[in-house]
Structures are given as structure tokens and as C-alpha cells.
Amino acid sequence: MDTDRVFRTSPAPLVLAADARTAGFRLETTADAVRVRRGVYTSLARWEELPGWDRYLVRVHALALVRPDAMFSHEAAAALWGLPVFGHPRDVHLFDGRRTRSLRYGDVAVHTSADRRRCVRDADICATTVADTVADLVRCL
């Protein structure tokens, strides 16, 4: 484990489709890869051996690749922090304090609040603090 990292890293390697195409490899037609989200793939064998909570963490990291501006919250932030996440949550949760209303698209739930959230950044990923994450989970779960 990389001790310089704050957040848990992805338990499975992720590949952007654009990077694979540059190398001449077509992920869309490969039986050895699974699409985690649009344009992001991982090894099918590795995916199948992961428990639900680690599959969820892979989904969080996949969204971080395509949405580097995102601030993860709720279960997504909990997974990044290494806090308990039970099973494989349906939605990847983000926080956007600039919005006036929460919204949902696909498997992404975007939350807002009049209360400010603080962001902790590790490499290219931003998530709510442990305290804000726990408070959000207490309110929702």
C-alpha cells in the first residue's frame, strides 16, 4: 500500500478506452475486459473476484477519471476513506455546493446543501472530509 496516499486506491486497474485505442487495443470487443463506466474498463477476471464494496470503489475511481472536477461524498467518500460501505451501493455520490437542487443522472447522485463541505484532495481525487462524510451518512442512512 502506498503510505503517501490519503484515499484508498482502485482495487482493480482502470484503462481509458482512448488510451487503449492509441495502443491498438479495442476494449469494446474484448471478452477479458468489463466496462465500469462509459469509456473506462477493467480486467474482467479481477472485477469478478472483488467483493461488492471493492467493486463500488472501482466505480468511484472510474468516475474520478472522467470527472476530475468532482467532489465525492456519502458512500463514495466513505469508500475512498476506507470507512465501511455495505454491499455495492447503487449510486456514486457527489457534492456540488453551487447547485440549488440535488439531481440524479444514471448511477450518479449529485447532492447540495446550504451547509458548506470541505474538500480533501489526494492526487486527482477530491472528497468531503471524514467528519462531513460521516455526518452526511448519518443524515441519509
Would you give an account of this structure?
The chain has helices spanning 17-22, 44-49, 52-66, 74-81, 130-140, and strands at 15-16, 33-37, 40-43, 71-72, 92-95, 103-105, 108-111, 119-122, 125-128. It contains 5 helices and 9 strands. Strands 1-3-2 form a 3-stranded antiparallel beta sheet. Strands 4-9-8 form a 3-stranded mixed beta sheet. Strands 5-7-6 form a 3-stranded mixed beta sheet. The longest helix is centred in the middle third of the chain and has 15 residues, at 52-66. It is globular and about 45 Å long. Helix 4 (74-81) crosses helix 5 (130-140). The chain starts with 14 loop residues before the first strand and ends with a helix. Helix content is 33%, strand content 23%. It is of the alpha/beta class.
Write the layout of secondary structure elements.
Elements: E1 15-16, H1 17-22, E2 33-37, E3 40-43, H2 44-49, H3 52-66, E4 71-72, H4 74-81, E5 92-95, E6 103-105, E7 108-111, E8 119-122, E9 125-128, H5 130-140
Parallel strand pairs: 4-9, 5-7
Antiparallel strand pairs: 1-3, 2-3, 6-7, 8-9
Helix pairs in contact: 4-5
The number of helices is: 5
Largest sheet: 3 strands, antiparallel
Strand element count: 9
Order of helices and strands: EHEEHHEHEEEEEH
The largest beta-sheet arranges its strands as 1-3-2
The Cα radius of gyration reads: 15 Å
- Low-confidence stretches are none
What fraction of residues sit in β-strands? 15-25%
Helix content: 25-40%
The average pLDDT score comes to: 89
Question: Based on helices, strands and strand pairing, what is the structural class?
Answer: alpha/beta
Gap between N and C termini:
30 Å
